[in-house]
Amino acid sequence: MLDRFLKFLKDNKKNIILYFLTVLVSAVLLVIGNKTAYDKASMFQGGYEDGAARAKVTEIISLNREDNIIDGVNIGQDITVVFKAKIKSGEYKGQTVTAYESIAATDADALKEVGVGDSVLLTAVPEEAVGEVGYDWHLYAFDRSVPLIILAVLFLALVLVFGRRKGINTAISLSFTIAAVFLVFLPSVLSGGNIYLWSVLTCVYIIAMSLLINEGYSKKTLAAVIGCTAGVVVAGVLALVMTKFLNLNGITGSDMLQLKWNFESIDLKGIIFAGIILGAVGAVKDVSVSISSSLKELHSQVESPTFGGLVKSGMNIGRDIMGTMADTLVLAYIGCELSTTLLQVVYSSSLSTLFSLEKIVVDVLQALVGSIGILLAIPLTAVVSAALYVGLPKKSLNEKMQMKDKYYVEPSSEPSLYESIESRKDKK
Fold this sequence. Notes:
By secondary structure, the chain is α+β, with helices and mostly antiparallel strands. It has helices at residues 2-11, 13-37, 127-133, 145-163, 165-190, 195-215, 219-245, 254-262, 268-301, 307-336, 338-347, 351-354, 358-390, 397-404, 417-427, and strands at 53-70, 73-87, 96-103, 119-124, 137-142. The protein has a five-stranded mixed barrel. Helix 2 (13-37) runs parallel beside helix 5 and helix 6 packs antiparallel against helix 7. It is globular, with a radius of gyration of 32 Å.
């Protein structure tokens, strides 16, 4: 076993060095990007939830329900729950405190009623309000971090079990991708950086890093990188052009308004641009890798592959992928904004009105622009892959002459009449 492992290291020494070098450079770029983009003043400012502490509910002290009647109509119940909880983090870790939860019948986003054993986040009640409510702590939210961590661990375990070595690469590249978004891109936007520049840099980093880590240094990777980058660039250019022609102002909902109020200098149309190209990267990358990988396999299996044959095969493969990937983008955007879309449909008088609303227009724009990026990545990846695997087609001298002169006649191997006559003279 040890001998086989040492032999593997010796045979793949170059690839192993390149792999670890890629991981190291990717990590260093993340650190540099974070230090460049991060601004403490704009990150995690907090609000009423300042000082939130993780806690576990140990006892329900009281539960009060009162009917909320407006104009003689009972619209629901106002609920107040007083409970004890043991704090598990922060300055008061280990202490058991008394807290309360207030649920108004008119609150559309009210939390569910707290119960014994629930993991929660508690916030300290402001000193000026303690006398009014009678308690020092208030339920801010349920602590959902543990279930999410369990799900993430399960996902990583499945990736490693089914993917093995590829699974490790997937986990590393996915971690770097998430870090690039949350540690570099988002801080750069909130700190006043150029959204267009940082979104492009983030996309280029994600494309190069993920493909090099997952696919290694090869012609297949180069073809995928070129095809994916081109598709994303096209998506970005279309996003810029269409944002202008559609007269978008970037305000697609209350979240955008709140963002504008808190950061007056932020470019909301830039956020739409960034959302489009970041959303397109994954799908375009998937298409590019599928085509370059398939053509690589064809090149190794077919006896005499040609440039034209590989390009044609790449286009056929791309057509099969195209429909499903376009559906993926459309359904992903609709699914993420389903509640908003439902409301827009209800309050619109017609389809023409619906598709003139900025929120719907932006969703459609994201799906269409991303799909166009996929469409254009298909032929380019196919052509680049074929050129890298078998080389560009070379025309012979005779073919070039035929192209220049339509009356060109292929020279015959038979002797000309003059040569025949001269030959007979020599014989005499």
